[in-house]
Queue: 2 jobs
Job 1
Amino acid sequence: MSKEAKFISIEGGEGAGKSTAIKTIQSYLNHRGIAHIVTREPGGTPLAEKIRSLLLDKSDETLLPETELLLFFAGRYQHVEHVIKPALEKGLWVISDRFVDASFAYQGAGRGIAESRIEYLKEWLIKDLSPQHTLLLDAPPALGLDRIKARGELDRIEGEKIDFFNRVRAYYLEKAAKEKARFHIIDTSASLADVEENTRLWLEDICGDYTR
Ligand code: Z5A
C-alpha cells in the first residue's frame, strides 16, 4: 500500500445514510483534490456485482446463513484483489460502502454464525488489510427501515425482522467502542444538514493538512 493511500469504510444499518454520507465525502475529497475511488460491498467488480444480486434478490430457495457468508466473502475476495489493493498501491484513497465489519455484524450477530468462523475467513482471505478509518452511521433500525420503505420495495435482507437489525446495530456499537481509534460514529437520526456538517468535521480531522 502506497504511503499516500488511505482505506476508509462506511458502515451502518439499513437506511442509516451511507449513500448520502458518501456523496458528502466524494464532494469533500474532490474539493481537496484527493484522488480516490468509491466502491461497495457486496459488489465492486462485475463478478462481485453478480454475487450481490444472488445475495439481495428474493428467491424461492432459502439462502442458508453459511452460503450467505461464503458468498459475501467470495465477492469480497474479488473486490479486494481486483479493486481495493490495486487502488491503494497506486496511492488512491479507497472509500468502501461496507467491508469485513458487515460480515461480523450481519452474518455473525444477525444470523448467529460463530465469530471464529468469520475470523477464519478474514485471516485466510483478507489478512491484515483493514480500513484505517471506519465511519459508523448510526440510527435506530426502525427509523432507517422507514426511510428505505419510502424509497420502494425491500430486498431479501431488508425484509428481516427488527430483532435482527437490533442485533446488527448492537454489534456495530460494541465494536466501535472497542476500536475507538478506527471508528467514528455519527448519529444519523439528526437532520440531513447536521449529518453533513458532522461528516465534514470528521473528514477535516482525518484529512488534516494532507497535500499531494
Ligand atoms: N451485508 C451483509 O449482510 N454482510 C456483508 O458482509 C455485507 C453486506 C458487505 C446490502 O448492503 C446488504 O448487504 C445490507 C447489509 C448486507 N443489508 N441489507 N438489507 P447495502 O449497503 O447496499 O444496503 P443498505 O444497507 O440496505 O443501504 P441503503 O439501503 O442503500 O441505505 P443507506 O445508503 O445507508 O441510506 P441512504 O440511501 O443514504 O438513505 C436512505 C434514505 O434516507 C434516502 O432517501 C435518504 O435521503 C434518507 N436519509 C438519509 N439520511 C437522512 C437524514 N439524516 N434525515 C432524513 N432522511 C435521510
Job 2
Amino acid sequence: MCGIVARIGRGNATETLLSSLESLEYRGYDSAGIAVQNGSGVKVHKCSGEVSDLKSSLDHEPHGNMGIGHTRWSTHGPPTDENAHPHTDSAGDVAVVHNGVIENYDELKAELQENGHEFESDTDTEVIPHLIDEYRSETDDTETAVRRAVDTLEGSYAIAAIVDGEEAVYAVRKGSPLVLGLGADEWYLASDVPAFLDHTDEVIYLEDGDVVVLEPDSYRLTDAEGTPVERSVETVDWDPEDAGKGEYDHYMLKEIHNQPSSLANTIDGRVDDGEISLEEFPPGTFADVDTVQFVACGTSYHAALYGSQLLRSAGVRTDVIRASEYETATGPVDENTLVVAVTQSGETADTLDAVRKGADRGGRTLAVTNVVGSTIARESDDALYIRAGPEVGVAATKTFSSQAVTLALLTQRLAEDVPEASPPGDQAEMLETLADLPAHVETILESTHAEELAREYLGSESYFFIGSGLGHPVSLEGALKFKEITYEHAEGFAAGQLKHGPLALVTEESPIFAICTGNADGKTKTNAIEAQSRGAPIIAVGSADNPIADVAETTLEIPDTHPVWAGLLANVQLQLVSYHAADLLERPIDKPRNLAKSVTVE
Ligand code: M6R
C-alpha cells in the first residue's frame, strides 16, 4: 500500500504534488518521490524517509506544470533511495508511480533484461516503465503502449505515468483505488480524496480497467477495451479542514477530539421518533437473512465484535471472522447469509478477499465503511456509511466509535427484520440515550486525567486491559491502540480469561485497566481483585459508581449512559491514555513504525 498522486494544469506542479503527498502519508511513509516534466526531460527527485525528508533534499523547486508523486509502504525491497518511486525506464524517459502489487514481475523483469533493459531497484514496479518503453518502440502511441503494458501485468495496480516530451498524464486502475479530481483549470489523480481536497471537491471514482489520459485542457476516460466511458462526477462533502491537523500536534489527538462531531454526523437522521431510520435500508430489507457473518481486521474487527454481541443478544445467528482467516474459519454460506465487511478505508486487502469469497459462496454482501467510492463499497451488494469524516492518523479512533454506533443501529434494523429475532426490550431507552453520546464524549475530553495517569504508569513492564461483555472488545481495542503507538507491551483479555494463563505475567509493574460498562461487570471486578492481590495496580474505566471504583487506585470516569454506549465512552478514555503515553515517550504518533493506515496487501 502506497499513495500516488498526479497533477496537470497551469503553473508549477511541484508544490501541489508535495502537499498532496503529505495528505497521503497515512498510506505509507518509507520513502517519497516526485517526477515533473519541464520541457527539458522528466526530472525525478526521490529519497527514503518521509515527504519532509524529500522536501529538505530539494535544493530548488523543480519546475514543470505536470507531474506524478508517490509515498511508499515497502513490500518489494527495503525502504532505500533506489526503491523509492517514481521508477523510470533505462533512458529515464518514462516515469511511473504505482500502488499495488505486480505478481508476475519476476518473469517480466527477466524478459525485459534479455531485451537489454537495465534495472536499478528491487521493486515490482520498475517493470512498468520498462514495459511502456518497450511498447513505445513498437508503436508511436503512448496510450497504446500503456494499454499493452498493463495487459501483461498480473496483480493489482493504480498507476500514473508521464513521458518525456508529452504534455499528458496516463493512468490506469485495477484493484487499487484511484480518484480523479476535477479542478477549475487543472486535473488531479490520487489514491484518496484528501490529496486534492484543498483544490476541488468534484471527483470521479475510477473503476477497474479504466484508463485516463489527462491533458492540460481535457481528460479522456476509456475502459480496458478502449471504449469511451462516462463516469458520474460526485461532490465530496468533506471539509478541507477535516483533512488537516488544525491546532493539534497530531492527527490522532485531533481525531479523538473530533468525536463529538463525527458521532453526531454518524447518528444524524438515523433515529427518528424512537425508531431506526436507516435511509438506505427500509424495514424489511433483511427479511430473508438468517445468519450474519462479520469480516474485518484490527480495530474494525473489534467494532465488529461489538456489533456481533448486540446482534446475538437480539437472537440473530452471528459469526465474527478475522478477514485474513476467512478461508478456513467460515461456516456455511448461502443466499440467506449476510456477509458484513467492516472496514474504515474500504481498501483492506484481507477484508476485500474475505467479502469476495463470501460472495462467491452465494452470500449477500454489505460494506460498513467510511470511504464513499472505496473498492469495498463498489464491490459489495450494499454499503452503509459510518460518516466519520477523513481519518488520517494511522491509529483508528473516531472511526471505531462511528463503526460501533453504525453497527448498533444496523443491529436494530436486522433484529426487526430477521424472522425469530427481536430487538432488545430496552430499545427505546437505548436509542434515546444515543442522542447524548456526542455530549458525553465532550465531557470526557474536558475532564479527563488520562495524561496524568499515562505519566504515572510510564515505564511499566506491561499494560493489560480487561473487560467482560461489551467491555471485552473495548479491552482488545484499548490494548491494540496502546501497543500500536507506544511500542510497549499491551494485551487485552476477556476478564474471566486472566486466570487461565495471562495472570502469570501480572506483577506490580503491570497496570490493569478494568473496563466497566454497567453490564457483566461482576466478572471484571472478581478478576481485577485477583490481579490486584498479585500486586497489579487497577485503574477502573467506567461511571463514577462503577463496581470496581472502591478497590481501584483511580477511575477514568465516564458519564452515566446506557451499557451499549458505555464501552464506547470507556474507549475514548483509553484512546487518550495511549495518546499521552506515546507522546511522553516521544513516539511518532501519527506514523507508527512499520505500519500504514490501509493495508492493501494480504
Ligand atoms: O481500513 P480498515 O478498517 O479495514 O483497517 C483495518 C486495520 O488495518 C486497522 O483497523 C488497524 O488495525 C488500525 N490502524 C489500528 O489502529
